[in-house]
């Protein structure tokens, strides 16, 4: 009965448009009071304090601040112009540039919607100018905007590490190669389509970068790429913890913004305000999600799910496919971070009981989360990309993302066949 109360109240509150954090808090409190009476609710404050006081969570506000500083610096458009200079001669060169720029900018901006807005505003008009269809242009940008959830440092990946008590440094290390593989898969698809349709789009003289030398393109893109290498490299080599690496990232973002001439008291204060709002939202969701998990744990829901699945004698890969399909459809209704925080504590014990590696599982879940930003009705990147060009319809954007949704599914299959891609070296 308690489980029915908790789950049904959560679904009703979400359907009514109640913020995720409050939906989790109310439904969890109802379950706790139902089982232990009003006295049991005293545990809520201890759970919240125990969650938000963890040192590892300091990395979240720092990475968010880094992303806001990068976003306010306007480096995204320069990054795209630079990358397009490198790939413009290849078949589908500008689409490849959008994918690579989206992956790089997503790694430092931390928000798929921000990537879709910044890269989409400059890439899609230029792609359509070079005779790309609306579907291909919008689909490429929308799909690549989610790559930042896989390529570290990734906020959803940090959340996964917190709720499953998995090493964030190991998750970052395990996600790097799969992220690069997905980028290469997307680029390969673009090259294949361009060659098949004999649309090479490899214009040497294009307005976008006709006055941009190769050296200048390196100077524009180099600092951002170097910042990613320093942040991830310091974690990978054990020089810094994720929290310390996040602090390095903030300092690097300030330096990049200052060198670009976009750092001022006003822009920095705006970045602080925006990051504070985002952090309050993220930490509230995380804290109340832990209360929600406590309520479910009191009812032994994760244990019952694991026992039920094992007693059903399902093949481990059958169960894996069921979980992936379930996450795919839930991603149509919830954003990636909320989905990770709500669903993973329930399914994680069963997945571990089946012998799945927590690092590998975290990476695969992040690839699945990429669906969430490009599937209606909640796929925000679809709407952001649609609004980036006058005359572009939502139907065109959705059609354009379908091949990339298939590619993400193929990526999950590849990681399942070759789990060593997530190995920690």
UniProtKB/TrEMBL annotation:
Instruction: Name the domain of life this protein comes from.
Output: Bacteria
Q: Where is the TRAP C4-dicarboxylate transport system permease DctM subunit domain?
A: 9-420
Q: Its topology with respect to the membrane?
A: Multi-pass membrane protein
Q: Which GO terms describe its molecular function?
A: transmembrane transporter activity
Membrane-crossing residue ranges in chain numbering: 47-65, 140-163, 175-193, 214-239, 245-268, 280-297, 317-347, 359-385, 405-424
Q: Where in the cell is it found?
A: Cell inner membrane
Under the cellular component aspect of Gene Ontology, which terms does the record hold?
plasma membrane
* Keyword terms: Cell inner membrane, Cell membrane, Membrane, Transmembrane, Transmembrane helix, Transport
Q: Its biological function?
A: Part of the tripartite ATP-independent periplasmic (TRAP) transport system.
Q: So what family is this one in? A: Belongs to the TRAP transporter large permease family.
Q: How does it assemble?
A: The complex comprises the extracytoplasmic solute receptor protein and the two transmembrane proteins.
Protein's recorded name: TRAP transporter large permease protein
Q: Which organism is it from?
A: Marinobacterium iners DSM 11526
